23S rRNA (uracil(747)-C(5))-methyltransferase RlmC (Enterobacter lignolyticus), 376 residues
Amino acid sequence: MQCALYDAGRCRSCQWIEQPVSQQLLAKMSDLQALLSDLPVQEWHAPVSGPEQGFRNKAKMVVSGSVEKPLLGMLRRDGTPEDLTHCPLYPPAFAAVFAVLKPFIARAGLTPYNVARRRGELKYLLLTESQLDGGMMLRFVLRSTGKLEQLRAALPWLQQQLPQLKVISVNIQPVHMAIMEGDEEIFLTGAQALAENFNGVPLWIRPQSFFQTNPTVATSLYATARDWVRGLPVTHMWDLFCGVGGFGLHCATPAMTLTGIEIAPEAIACAKQSAAELGLTNLRFQALDSTQFAVGQGEAPGLVLVNPPRRGIGEALCAYLDRMAPDYIVYSSCNAQSMAKDIARLPHYRIERVQLFDMFPHTAHYEVLTLLVRER
């Protein structure tokens, strides 16, 4: 992938960009194999990759500069801004939206937040695109509600220019720290969720709910989990750290009982909406802490699927699973180091199969799916 920002030394986020993707995959596979070298693997499946560029469905843009000439991108470590509106990781449709948002910021009088001076209102713009129909969700992250009415007044012009904006909201983040969003979300449109669909499974994206940023590879990840799970003799499963329910909704059948647990209520609302559309009545989604939920149960189901954040599932949940002995564990991880530590804490399980998913090209990061089987 060619990137003018990288060539000019203005951005180094894609640290592996000079390596061919085939070489990147080899390096990632080597890293994963080294991490699991003390944990024998029955089957290594070929890694899955997707497009080299234009693959991201989400942009998180720091807003800097002036109200007349805003910059959308990032702040370097020394505090100087860099405009990333032409980053090749974003699909072409994003550039057109950014081009309209810049004059809109001036129309609405949304002064970019100045970190050094602690002044201004507009901190971030968060843009998400649906692969289903090209619809988009736009979120303005503001320091306060001081400019909210000005934003509302200017909004019709923006919606006329960009009819693809299906969901528009304001997030209030008053803290002077590098925190992306606050707790308060104010919707400026009637629609509060963006429709998406992977593998024929309806999914919904709401503000403050996690959703995979590489739809092509995520589609393969969910389909693989579905195929693995449906090949197992199980009728009851837990989907822990379930997010919007992507894994559980793919794996579930009318004959299966499924419990999905996720701490974010917004994500659970999405999962429930999808389950209703699919007509699956044996699915139960709850907004709870996954570890607290699991260790509070007297027994585990035949299958537990976990998709934790980078820290992994941790010692307490590993101890519970090893003791309660579900027949199978499917572990989806965005941090193979923490996954390897967790699996080492499950001495009564063996690794049946592993597959790497290159969700983050041009970086050292990757996703991995692992099937663990209880030793008899």
Summary: The two ends are 48 Å apart (CA to CA). The chain has two domains: 4-52+214-374, 58-191.
